[in-house]
Structure formats: structure tokens, C-alpha cells
Batch of 4 targets.
Target 1
Amino acid sequence: MLDRRLQILLDEERYRRVATEAAARGTSVASVVREAIDRTFPVPTARRRAAVRELLDADDMTVPEVDGLRAELEELRGRRA
């Protein structure tokens, strides 16, 4: 959830680069800025390890056979059309 507002001033060249990237990706300037922050200042290792541990400790789940999974994906794709 996004709950902090940040106002920054950029020179025209920086804004043009960010806006061009956002347009190429079909996303917002804000999204590109957030991604740049995440790449520059990654989540601390301890938090990442805790997240991995939580995933590894999760209960096993059944995974359908490949044909069943394909059918499920095709059904979901059909709903979006």
C-alpha cells in the first residue's frame, strides 16, 4: 500500500528520460521512480531471508498436470478477452 507522498523537482532532461521510459513501458512516471528506488536501495538482506524462509516453510500445494494447467490458463485468458 502506498501511503507516503513525495514531491521532487527534476530538470527537463531527467524528467524527459523518466517520462520516456514510463511511456515505453505503458506505466506511470511514479512507477518508474519507485522501481529505480528499489533497484538502488534494495530490501535489507534480513527481510529478504525472512521472506524466503516463509515461502520455504509454506505447506505443499498440489500442482495440476501440465495439460490441466494449460486448460486453466486458457480459460483465464478467455475471460479477459
Target 2
Amino acid sequence: MTNVEPDIRNELTALLPNLRAFSNSLTRNRDLADDLVQETLIKAWKNQDRFIPGSNLKAWLFTILRNTYLTHLRRRKFEAEDVNGELVQQLSVEASQGAHMDLIDFSEALARLPREQREAILLVGAEGFSHEDAALMCGCAVGTMKSRVNRARNKLSEILGLQDADGGESSSLSATITQHLVQP
């Protein structure tokens, strides 16, 4: 844009302090104010053919600056300042497919248990009844109920492959579900 008249260049330069002062009063943030002034000058430079020679250049620039500031405010409503990236980290969601598949596997394993063991593990582990109350409901001795729960727990661990090389339970999500659901 080399065809800009020298007096328009001079006027733009002369109006910089006024633009900065107006921008500072709008934003109360020196960095943002400087960014708005720069953006205003870029817009004015790109759209200089829209400026009518002989009209009020200062009013035209202040209008561009004000509109640029208002656009910034509208956009800011939809943005959150995230300097350290903490908000972005909170937006990520763990994949839920694994937990869903674990639940399906657990349900299938539970269905493979003998009826008495399944009933015992559900009463004690899932429903939270004591061994004594569960034994009363099933019409068996407390020792029998404890044995059924223990055998069900071991069988579920075996079916789900939750035993590690040492014979202890692994730390997978399925093991955690099983531990919380079926341990006395």
C-alpha cells in the first residue's frame, strides 16, 4: 500500500498516543491495549480505501478500536484463561469402554457361578448383608455362608484371570471391582 498519502501516514502516527490512551482506558491492561491499537492500525491500513479523504480520521480510528475491543469482549465470554494448562487437563475424560467391558466380563463370570455361590456373593458382597443375616435368609449355617462367599470370590478371580503369578490378585480394574464387591 505504497499509494498512501504522506499526510495520512503522518496523521496515523500523530494519533498513536490518542489511540493508546483510549485503548488503555477501555482495557486497563497495557498489553491488551497495545494489541488493540496494533490491530486497529492493521484494520485501518487494510481498509484505507473505505476512509473518505477529508473526513475525521481520528473518529474513524476510534470507531475501529472500539469495535475491535467489543469483539474481543464477546470472544472472551467463550474463552477461559488457562495459563498453566490446568483447565485443559480437566477437560479430558478417561475412556469408559474399558470399565464397561470389565463390567460385562464380571457379569458373565458371575453368571457362571453355581446358584448358591452367586446368591451368597450378591447378598454379602453387593447388598452388604452380614454373613449371619445372609445365612438366615438362605437357611444355612454361618460357616456355610462364609465358605460359599469365599469359594465364589476365588472362582470369580479365577474366571476373570485376576490372579497374578504369585497367586495373589492383580491390580486391574476388574480386581478392584471384585475386591470391593465380594470381600467380607
Target 3
Amino acid sequence: MTYYNTTGLIDEQLRSEWASVANQDQLILALYLRDNNGMTPFQVMNICNIYGRNWPITSIRRAINTLTKAGKLTKTRELRVGDYGKKCHVWRLNDQTT
């Protein structure tokens, strides 16, 4: 899992961010494992909000991107309307991720 240290954190702050990112990626992957009908980043964000994880959409997108690069998720051609009325791509579990 990847934390992009764009703010120059060091030592304990950086370790804390790395730990939270791994946890975030794992929780988002668990959502896809639970239901593989595919989800947009906004759908993931809304489910996370229900469970008290009020992560910004940029963090959700970062986690989805990281999971895609790791071969866990696949971006599809399917589009669904997101929170701002714009069409968003749907991601699904990669066939080997079960």
C-alpha cells in the first residue's frame, strides 16, 4: 500500500500515515470482496461514510488507484453517475483476487 509523502512528514507522523493508508486500502478492498457488482469511487465513499469512515473522495481514489496498480482491482468501461452528476468509471475485483 502506498502513502505519497507530499507534505514532508518524518518519523512517527510518517509511520502513522503509512499505517492508516494500509488500513484504508484493506478496508476498501474488503468492500469489493463483499460485493463484486462493481463500485465507483463515490459509491465506495458513501459506504465508508455509513461505517463512520469519512474519508475524502481523493483518498478513496488514491486507495482504488493503489489497489488497481497492485492487481487487486480492475477499472471497467462501465460508467455510473457520481455525486456531482458526472459519469464515473466502475471498478471490480480482478479475477484473481478472491
Target 4
Amino acid sequence: MDELAPRGRRLGAAVIDGLLFAVPYGMVKASSAPFLVIVGFLIFLALFGYQCWLVAKQGQTIGKRYLGIRIVGVENGENPGFVRAVLLRTMVNGLIALIPLYGLVDILFIFRGDRRCIHDWMARTKVVPADAAPAPVEAQPM
């Protein structure tokens, strides 16, 4: 079996990403000043856009990058790209997560032997150490 990212690193990356989004979310929810609400919302949108770009281009969020793990396709170990990494793994999974208890079931799938959550199955991805995955095309020397 290919080398897989440790479960603790995946959890750590999710916590880091969640904390990053907590700051602008808190600004929007806790502030009664319209200026802070707008600034918090713009920061949230910018962070979300940057995270989507990172996932599409490098297979990493800020948290995954910090902890040295990467999302790759199961069939070839390469970057899965925008549709699979962002749309399926993030957006569609986020919509399905509106179903009660789905989020818990999705997380519990990480305890399977292949460490793939439901969102990994939907997008045909897995998470590996960054040094075990091919470098993104933009980062390879010519």
C-alpha cells in the first residue's frame, strides 16, 4: 500500500484550517459594527478563495501545507485538480454535510485501513505525505 498521511496530521490540518476561518467568522458574528462585519466577510471570502486555489493547484490547504501532507488522486498519485479536489471534495461534501450525522460518519471513515473519508471516496483522492507525492507541475524544474 502507498504511504498514507498519518491520521493525526489530517486532524491537525483540519484544526488549523478551521481556526483560520474562525477569525473572520467571529468578526462577522460577534460584531455589531457594520464595518467589521464587512471586513470579516471579505477576509473570509479571500481566505476561502486562497484555500480553493491552493487545493486546486497544489493539493494542499494552508493546514495541510504546514503539516506536510497533500491530496492526490488514488489512480495516479497526482494532483486531482479543481473539479475533484475543490468541487467534489469540498463543495459537494459541504452540501451533503447538511444531512444530520453525515459529518460524523465521514470523519469516522478515516479509521478504515485505507484512511479515506467519504469525501475522499467521492473525489477518488487520498492524503499522503507531501514528500511522497509528485510535486505540482508548476513547481517542477524545467
